[in-house]
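Journal club prep — side note

Before the paper discussion, L.F. wants everyone to see what a predicted structure for a comparable chain looks like in token form. Sequence:
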Amino acid sequence: QVQLTESGGGLVQPGGSLRLSCAASGSISSIDAMGWYRQVPGKRRELVAHIGEPANTHYADSVKGRFTISRDSEKGTVDLQMNGLKPEDTAVYLCHAVTIATMMDYWGQGTQVTVSS
């Protein structure tokens, strides 16, 4: 089992920056990939960025060049540095982890990011 806890959300003005952090606990060594999704009420949950081994990254087109994902596999943490934030980035951001051996997905509770002047 894996538990995920996010931190770092908040209110920021357009063009500003935020850093989201997620810490895993439990069977950290079983995690194969971690990442971030976001969800807006009434819309589908969408992938923001994901990072596997060895540090293979994938970004949504809408955040390329603005967001950077990083991971510490030994500590079970994944961070998302978000620069150049836009109002359309406003959403609940959820941490995600996957264990291929057991084909399990794990989700955090989510952290609100609001971009507004």
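L.F.'s comment for the group: The chain has a mean pLDDT of 95. Keep this in mind when we get to the figures.
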